[in-house]
């Protein structure tokens, strides 16, 4: 479907788009709680970011049962903030969660089995204090559980009223299509498919995007800024307090290669000419594809969140800009 712009009661600038072949509108930018909302994080900052996001048109908050640290703490902290500040706005907010990665010790706290998914959503609802999730995902294909077992669990979760819609995340194309077919034949279509997608990671262009489009699923991207590589943070080295400087985490120092930095510097020049930061342009680039419904951003401060939201002020690209970006991205690493 074409992009739809909904009048909203916030600042009037956040664009919304129908999610796949559904009547559900999602904001172009969604807020993810993967980082910065766990027990180790500043809860005052977390609350301020959620309120700022909502006040500026971000109506979709993305969780998972294992987000923290510790696992489960992001859901619990979100639930407390929601009860105090958002309870009266429940019908104006889309809340998603997921299960499938390791959450608790033992044979049943991991994977995509029916046992894990049913137990996980019950625990997640208890932690958040919600009666239902708007979207509940199978967080991954675990390589063992038959797709039909996982999908039937999701079908039953919808029928039980624990989620309004269901989604899948990170499924290989072949298993993605299996999931779509099973769900369609059982009357609960896949609303949305979540994948990593950014200028430096374009694997979903090899089949996932086409499959989602063919079966009417929306697509939402996580890590659209490549864990910070597509920002101005690493243009002049690795700051001491950055993600790459930490000994743990998904972004390792080894990922900040001279070749990646050179690409970022060149991309930053194009962003400047567009009147954007590199991060804002990277978000706009990810949304350029008509099949993309939304991007999930993380944030460690209200200022960072505010800066990233400004990406929606310029989502259009000239052909010459796209060609220049493509030439930069094609440079060998």
Q: Give the count of helical stretches.
A: 10
Number of domains: 1
N- to C-terminal distance: 36 Å
Class by SSE composition: alpha/beta
What fraction of the residues are assigned to beta strands by DSSP?
Answer: 15-25%
Rounded mean pLDDT is 91
Identify low-pLDDT runs.
1-11
* Major sheet size, sense and barrel closure: 8 strands, parallel, barrel
SSE order, as H and E? EEEHEHEHEHEHEHEHHEHH
Tell me the radius of gyration: 19 Å
- CATH class equals Alpha Beta
Shape: globular
Q: What is the assigned CATH homologous superfamily?
A: NADP-dependent oxidoreductase domain
Q: Which properties best describe this structure?
A:
333 residues, alpha/beta, two-stranded antiparallel sheet, 15% strand, globular
């Amino acid at each position: 479907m074409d992009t739809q712009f909904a009048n909203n009661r916030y600042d009037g600038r956040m664009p919304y788009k129908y999610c796949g072949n559904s009547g559900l509108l999602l904001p172009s930018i969604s807020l993810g709680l993967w980082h910065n909302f766990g027990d180790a994080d500043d809860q005052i900052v977390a609350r301020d970011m959620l309120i700022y996001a909502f006040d500026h048109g971000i109506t979709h908050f993305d969780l998972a049962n294992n987000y923290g640290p510790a696992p489960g703490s992001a859901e619990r902290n979100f639930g407390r903030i929601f009860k105090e500040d958002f309870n009266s706005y429940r019908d104006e907010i889309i809340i998603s969660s997921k299960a499938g990665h390791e959450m608790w010790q033992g044979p049943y706290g991991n994977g995509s089995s029916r046992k894990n998914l049913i137990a996980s959503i019950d625990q997640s609802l208890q932690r958040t204090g919600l009666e239902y999730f708007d979207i509940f995902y199978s967080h991954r294909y675990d390589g063992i559980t038959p797709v039909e077992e996982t999908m039937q669990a999701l079908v039953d979760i919808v029928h039980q009223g624990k989620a309004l819609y269901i989604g899948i995340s990170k499924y290989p194309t072949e298993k993605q299509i299996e999931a779509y077919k099973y769900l369609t034949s059982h009357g609960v279509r896949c609303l949305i498919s979540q994948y990593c997608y950014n200028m430096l990671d374009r694997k979903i262009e090899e089949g996932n995007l086409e499959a989602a489009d063919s079966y009417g699923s929306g697509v939402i991207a996580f890590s659209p800024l490549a864990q910070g590589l597509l920002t101005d943070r690493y243009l002049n080295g690795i700051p001491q307090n950055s993600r790459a400087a930490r000994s743990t985490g998904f972004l390792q120092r080894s990922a900040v290669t001279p070749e990646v930095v050179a690409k970022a510097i060149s991309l930053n020049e194009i962003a400047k000419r567009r009147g954007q930061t590199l991060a804002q342009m990277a978000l706009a680039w990810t949304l350029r594809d008509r099949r993309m419904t939304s991007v999930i951003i993380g944030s460690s401060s209200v200022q960072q969140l505010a800066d990233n939201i400004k990406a929606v002020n310029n989502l259009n690209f000239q052909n010459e800009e796209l060609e220049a970006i493509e030439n930069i991205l094609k440079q060998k690493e």
